[in-house]
Design goal:
5-stranded antiparallel sheet
């Protein structure tokens, strides 16, 4: 009984390490990330790609209201998985930091700099009593000095740089697919294909333009671009990943956020 009471104390205390060096609330926050729908980032030779699963709970819900890809600055985009409200707070923080950097230094913020400022902010919530960690993981993608950059933020406040990654549900399965098929010499279209195939690898019914979100940032323009429904449809047809009408109807009936 005493051991159980001690365990519960470590569970409740965000600022208290357990005897084996664990912060349970941070680990629980990671579990919250796994409950969110999948988001994927892919770095290519001429840009970065963000792709997300936008499944909804009800056919009555407006799909446009499900926001998982955000523009942080002209050259930076962010995808999220986990608690949407937590993601919104971090996105707003990131946007403020980009504007402060522009006003203070007269130049766009570097992708790595923004990532570390966001993770420093996240980390503060693992040391302050009366607060909880952010239950969300972010994929921060952009262009810095002509080079594509791709980072992940963890609920612990740790940044990681990746060539390709997935966060959210089915992360393990998607990452295995990315590791097997990633090509460092792929162009932007190749990155789009890999991201879509990664999402399709855990969706047996295929994909629909309405059920996914996509954005790219290329090295030529260094501009964030959200793919339209027609663009997504064209890519899905080109890569033979488009769900049939019957499969799409069944997927809509089963959709859950």
């Amino acid at each position: 009984m005493q051991g159980q009471n001690q365990q519960q104390a470590y569970d409740r205390g965000i600022t208290i390490f357990s005897p084996d060096g664990r912060l349970y609330q941070v680990e629980y926050a990671r579990e919250a990330v796994k409950r969110g729908t999948a988001s994927i980032g892919v770095r290519t030779t001429d840009g970065v790609v963000l792709a997300v699963d936008k499944r909804i709970r009800s056919p009555l819900m407006e799909r446009d209201s499900v926001e998982k890809i955000h523009k942080a600055d002209d050259h930076i985009g962010i995808a999220s998985a986990g608690h949407v409200a937590d993601a919104r707070q971090l996105i707003d923080f990131a946007r403020r930091r980009t504007q402060i950097n522009e006003l203070r230094y007269g130049e766009p913020i570097a992708v790595e700099t923004l990532t570390k400022e966001v993770t420093d902010y996240i980390q503060q919530y693992t040391q302050v009593g009366g607060a909880r960690p952010f239950g969300v993981a972010l994929i921060i993608a952009g262009i810095a000095d002509g080079e594509p950059k791709l980072y992940e933020t963890d609920p612990s406040g740790t940044p990681y740089e990746w060539k390709a990654l997935a966060v959210g549900s089915d992360r393990g399965d998607i990452r295995e697919y990315l590791e097997e098929h990633y090509d460092e010499d792929a162009d932007l279209d190749g990155g789009i294909e890999l991201a879509l195939e990664g999402l399709a690898s855990v969706n047996d019914d295929g994909l629909t333009p309405e059920g996914i979100g996509m954005a790219t940032i290329d090295t030529e323009t260094e501009s964030f671009h959200t793919l339209s429904e027609d663009e997504k449809l064209e890519y899905l047809e080109t890569f033979d990943l488009l769900a049939s009408d019957d499969e799409a109807d069944e997927a809509d009936e089963d959709d859950e956020e």
